Amino acid sequence: MLDQKLIRENMAAVREALSKRNFDMALLDEFIAADQKWKTAQAGLDTLRAKLKAASKTKPTPEIIAENKKLSEEIKSQEKDLTVLEEDQRNRLLYIPNLPDESTPIGKSETDNREIRRWGEPAQKDFKVLAHDELGTNLGILNFEEAGKISGARFVVYHGAGARLERALINFMLDTHTGHGYQEVLPPALVNSKAMTGTGQLPKFKEDLFACDKGDDFYLIPTAEVPVTNLHREEILDGVRLPICYAAYTPCFRREAGSYGKDTRGIIRQHQFNKVELVKFTRPEEKTR
């Protein structure tokens, strides 16, 4: 979530940066309006509090006591109103995304991405190259029918070498990154709404999440980024500890709402998949290291 102070003090720069993300500026304007209402209400409340404080220092009379009682009741009422305004302000702020890095290419789709570097060249085959799902099915290492029977669409059962390959890739990635200074962590796959809000999944992407419906405030994680980033939520980290580097394997769960018709074959857009995630806590000036 963006810092409110950043938006207030750098409005033009924030607008320009968000425009590069093709962001709906109406959402930013709604936050600005809500923020202004909050500031006006806060100023009015501060005035009332100051007035009550000054009155409390005078010699009490029946008139002053009655006036102070009236002020106290008005302050309580405005405090409740301010709480509502703060919640509205915060909820609108949650819909504003992070600002893109200056090096990010400007574009409307993946076709506007730039190729930064290339390693090797694609091998030329003298035979028909099969799609991964067809090849996996022919080899007996991927079974979509079994997954459909026990779970439904967008799931797969790995068999034999397929299951071993999946496990080997997870271990390979963890071993590679821990060998480069990352600490391995194994977090829970169920998190609460505060964690989901902390990394921006809530409220914007609620429709993409699998939520437990027993009223216990649990969500299945869409990525290890959620629990790992929240390890230090509501903490002030000592700079001498930075950078803090984590590598985490978790299963991930996504509804993939809105993706129907896109990459529906094979294991590209599954409701459940395995992933190794890297998370680094570092200073902004050292972000590319």
Structure report:
The protein is α+β, with helices and mostly antiparallel strands and 289 residues long. It folds into two domains: 4-93, Orthogonal Bundle (Helix Hairpins); 163-286, 2-Layer Sandwich (BirA Bifunctional Protein, domain 2). It has nine helices and eight strands. It has a three-stranded mixed sheet with strand order 3-7-8. Strands 4-6-5 form a three-stranded antiparallel sheet. Strand 5 (210-211) and strand 6 (219-220) form a beta hairpin. Helix 3 (25-55) runs antiparallel to helix 4 (62-93). This is Serine--tRNA ligase. Pathway: Aminoacyl-tRNA biosynthesis; selenocysteinyl-tRNA(Sec) biosynthesis; L-seryl-tRNA(Sec) from L-serine and tRNA(Sec): step 1/1. It holds the Pfam family tRNA-synt_2b. Residues 164-289 form the Aminoacyl-transfer RNA synthetases class-II family profile domain.
- The number of helical runs is 9
Count every beta strand, where a strand is a DSSP E run of 2 or more residues.
8
The assigned CATH architecture of the largest domain is 2-Layer Sandwich
Percent of residues in beta strands = 5-15%
The residue-averaged pLDDT reads: 92
CATH fold description of the largest domain: BirA Bifunctional Protein, domain 2
| Number of separate structural domains | 2
Structural class: alpha+beta
Order of helices and strands: HHHHHEHEHEEHEEHEE
CATH H-tier superfamily of the largest domain: Bira Bifunctional Protein, Domain 2
